Amino acid sequence: MKAKLKGILTLLLVLIAQLATAQEKSISGKVTDQSGIPLPGVNVVIKGTSNGTQTDFDGNYTINTNMGGVLVFSYLGQKTTEKTVGTSNTINVQMEEDASQLEEVIVVGYGTQSKRTLTDNISKLTSDDISEVPNPNFQNALVAKAAGVQVTQTNGKVEGGINIRVRGAASVSGGTQPLYVLDGIPLIDPTGGRGEIGTGAPTNPLLTLSANEIESIDILKDASSAAIYGARGANGVVLITTKRGKQGKAKFSLNLSQGFSEPTNKREWLNAAEYVELFTEAGRNSPFFTPDEGQEYVEGEFDFFAGNTDWRTGEVDTNWSDVAFQNGYQTDADFSMSGADAKTSYFFSGAYNNTTGIIKDNALERVNARLNVSHQLTEKFKAGMNMSFSRTEIDRIANDNAFATPLQAIAQSPLSPARLDDGSANPSTLYGNFLLDADNAFFKTIIRRTIGKVYGEYKFLPSLSFNSDFSYDLFSQTEDNFRGQNALFQSTNGQAFASDLGSESYTFSNYATFDKLFAERHNINVVAGTEFIKYNRRITSVTSQQFPSDDLSTVSGGAEVTAGTGVDLQSSFVSYFARATYDLDGKYLLKASIRRDGSSRFGSNVRFGTFPAVSAGWILSEENFFKNSETLSFLKLRGSWGKLGNADIGGDYPSLFLFSGVSYNQRPGLAPAQPGNSFLTWEQSAQTDIGVEFGFFNGRISGELDYYKKDTEDLLFSVPLVPSSGAASINSNIGTLQGQGVEFVLNTRNIETEDFTWTSNFNISNNTNELKSLPNDNADIVTGRNINRVGESVASFYLREYAGVDPANGDALYYLNTENPDGSLNRNTTTDSDEAQRIVAGNPFPELIAGFTNTLLFNNFDFTFTFQGEWGASIYNGGGIYQSVNADYFDNQSVDQLNRWQQPGDITNIPQARLFAGNGSAHSTRFLADADFIRLRNISLGYTLPNAAIEKMGLSKLRVYVTAINLLTITNYPFEDPEARSDVNGQNTPGETFYSSPPAKTITLGVNINF
Predict the structure, then answer these.
(1) What local confidence, expressed as pLDDT, does residue 15 receive?
(2) All domains of the chain, ordered by start, with CATH?
(3) Region (Disordered): which ranges (predicted)?
(4) N or C of the chain: less Cβ packing under 10 Å?
């Protein structure tokens, strides 16, 4: 009986096993995103078990399960999907984006944070914003896109320096540029603020970066966000994040474009007939001649200018502006390959740019390559590497204050031919003919830059990780300047100059991160670490002359070495930092950070400084009294306070007593070069920010409103010393500056339908600054046409006040502006400019900047445009005393000088033409102009071919587009362009133009191809 029962049980077990086996089946399928693109690496798990698999490269999967089982499909950024197994052996899944997972993430320095819970003021630009503006200088993509951020290109040269001011001026003589951080690597201006060695004109230190490798740019504007960078954050911090591979099908993209450029504006100058008319009249009116003598003298000069041509018949009428400028061209090509699976992410890109500038003999050619790769070696350990290389070759021209620059050709007489009959440059012109350099000289700069980073992350616990990063930035710049025997002003048989600048920095960062949610309510994130940075810079140069032939154009070809330099510079930083953020229920937000920096640049008594910051926020829309509102979708209040520093205060050794080698009677010696100051330290800024973020109608309307106040103390000055001290001045921290402003951002989704969407972004910001104290009992500090005075803006214009023209006799008039006994100003006029007192006449910095961007999508068309506006700034035309002075000397004049005074009763602002008389030629407000403008910064129209048309070609996207930059400018500015500035002396003469080129107006045709 027992044996029979045992046999029956065995039979039942076999039948049950066979039944179970019969119910298990193989399920396969394909997983795609909403656009139909396969998704590799999707997790496919049998619900309630740990059994699962992943989709392959093409999104395919296979798994064994029972009928009635549930398959769970999960993927980062997509909504988790469940499918019940039925009778079919195929289950295909199309996943949908999860908006909650795709919430905007902000890079905050040594980590990231959700925009929703952010208590700081940070502006973010994505790769889409950056790629809209094809340009060698990627910083131009920031223009008008971020509230409170002013971006100005120095001039229209292809290598021209870029000046970025975050929330206005924060220093008087210290550095004004923000700190750039590339993938966690703090970048420095490798040339110490000059940009080069040979000409004194600064280049853009980030010219070596290409826009195609950038994923996002986050601009830290307030102290709470920037304080994590301590002594280098006072001018703001720009965090640049490069692209990485993303999970999904591997992608290959190719972008090609061709652009055509011309100046945004060229001023009109006198033609030959007008030149003869005006200067003949000026000669007859000259107080140094009788009318007939004056005319005879002027006609003699005309004979010289005309050479072998006849100026009386108008044989030559040279438009020197057309000779100096040319049509520009811009070729761009870039590609990238990227992808990722569950363990490995990779991104590789290459880019090529070839730009012929709008100024003769100015061009740039650049190649870039980047490799970013990361790998999850174990469940706890992840490592990666970012590496980039670039080579930039620039055909340079001289700075604005040199006759060799093409831009000064506008001063030449139109009676002079630019070239002689044999095609050679005319050497007999009023001033040196730049074409002599164009034909017989060259100035070439080559920049090679390698930026690399290796990093590792180890997770001790799911909530605790440790990061170790080592990065290296190598900047190598060579310059070769050769001037042949027939070059401009060349008195020897040729001259060659060669220089070599090598700059490198090492950064070693170690930090731990704790991130955990407790009890589903308390979210805590803590970062703490250390950082060490070492800077090395070496500069050498050599000059030789007396060349047997212009074909031997290197230094070794010269018979005599006449000069040489050699400089070695070093500095270092050591830092300790910590940051903690806390939010309760996702609506009560707190943050605090501190950084302690030590720098070898500062005095031995003040090497270290501490930079704290705190901030808080409250998401009111999460409260019950707002939560059910159908109108208000988001409302957050936030406030912050913090201290920041500016370490860019005069090179690597501003605090030390320096000596230099000298030669006396052909014997070596030492001489003092700089007095020391053991208490010299960084400029420090304390900043307060109060803001509100809002959203209405489920985010259809959103924006931000901020007020900030920034107090900077310990301003760096070179304070004059008494002659008996043995030095002219000493670097000291004396002075305070206060800046404040309001920023407003408004984002709207105006129309959202299946076929048409229209979104807008508007931002506007106001900034003012005022000096509160200065050295030597608040004594004025005057530099050229600028003044630093307590109660006024930094570097205000300080000029005589032009009063127009006496209608009775054509004399130029100036207001006396002397002080009356009662303290008022004497507003009487004088013809003697030396009697007129200078006044504060304007501000070189705009008080109001704005941007307005619109994006429209209609079926397969995309249309984007951005307007930029600036108001409140003035620009002084330093060349005006030559260009627009009613024929005072023989420089060609702007056409408005034809409206000069000619007879009693004439009402005009242009004095009578009088050769050599100085009638209105003194530096004054006559040459100061408001620089208000509105500019169509960029506009782009694109068309993406339908998928059905490109699938057979194996493409996932094909877009053709046309883009224009600086297409339209609305302004009353009378000079070249309201964004053109002199590239001489940099920030020491802010707001001044001097034969400066306008920026380029560029139209680009291009195609984007994705595989």
Answers:
(1) 42
(2) 25-102 (2.60.40.1120), 106-242 (2.170.130.10), 248-264+326-800+838-878+925-1010 (2.40.170.20)
(3) 978-997
(4) N
Tokens of 792: 């006024």
Contact 611, 645 (CB under 8 A): yes
Compute φ and ψ for 675, nearest 5 degrees.
-75, 150
pLDDT digits (tens, 9 = 90+) for 242-264: 999 987 778 999 999 999 999 99
**What is the bridge-based pairing of β-strands 52-54 and 43-46?**
antiparallel
Rg (CA), the chain: 34
Angle formed at CA 378 by CA 377 and CA 379, multiple of 5 degrees: 135
Residue 991 falls in which region: left (phi positive, over 0), alpha (psi -120 to 50) or beta: left
CA distance readout (Å), 541 to 495, 564, 957:
13, 5, 51
CA dist 983 and 993 (Å) reads: 8
| Interior/surface letters 374-398, b for 16+ CB within 10 angstroms, e for the rest | bebeeeeebebebbbbbbbebbbbb
Sign of CA dihedral 305, 311, 316, 318: positive
Q: Is the Cβ–Cβ distance between 590 and 619 less than 8 Å?
A: no
- Which of 781, 785, 804 lies closest to 993, judged by CA? 785
Q: Phi first, then psi: give them for residue 495, nearest 5 degrees.
A: -150, 140
By C-alpha distance, which of 945, 940, 939 is closest to 961? 940
pLDDT per position as a tens digit, 714-758: 888 777 777 777 777 788 888 899 999 999 999 999 999 888 999
Q: How far apart are CA 194 and CA 986, in angstroms?
A: 8
User: Is residue 745 helix, strand or coil?
Assistant: strand
Nearest to 853 by CA among 762, 765, 937: 762
pLDDT of 999: 93
Residue 97, CA atoms < 13 Å, CB-side half-sphere: 7
Can you give the pTM of this predicted structure? 0.88
Please state which of the ranges 89-103, 383-397, 487-501, 872-886 shows the lowest mean pLDDT.
89-103
Q: How many CB atoms lie within 10 A of CB 551?
A: 8
Dist. CA 942–CA 390, nearest whole Å: 30
Whole-number pLDDT of residue 37: 72
Do the bridges between strand 756-773 and strand 848-858 make them parallel or antiparallel, or are there none, so unpaired? antiparallel
Confidence of residue 828 (pLDDT cuts 50, 70, 90): very high
Q: For residue 144, is it left (φ>0), alpha (ψ between -120 and 50) or beta?
A: left
125 close to 118: Cβ distance less than 8 angstroms: no
Tokens of 367: 């190649």
In 311-375, where does DSSP find H-type helix?
A: 320-324
CB-based burial, 611-646: b 16+ in 10 Å, e otherwise? bbbbbbbbbbbbeeeeeeeeeebbbbbbbbbbbbbb
Question: What is the identity of the amino acid at 126?
Answer: T
Beta-carbon contacts of 632 under 8 Å, excluding residues fewer than 6 positions away, are 621, 626, 694, 695, 696
Pairing of strands 24-32, 60-66: antiparallel
The strand pair at 632-646 and 608-619 is best described as antiparallel
Specify which residues 707 forms β-bridges with. 690, 742
Angle at 481 between CA 480 and CA 482, to 5 degrees: 120
Question: Phi then psi for 21, rounded to 5 degrees?
Answer: -65, -35
* Contacting residues for 932 by C-beta, under 8 A, at least 6 apart: 870, 871, 872, 873, 971, 972, 973, 978
SS (H, E, C) 777-791: HHCCEEECCEEECCC
pLDDT tens per residue across span 73-128:
887 667 788 888 888 889 999 887 765 444 688 889 899 899 999 999 999 988 88
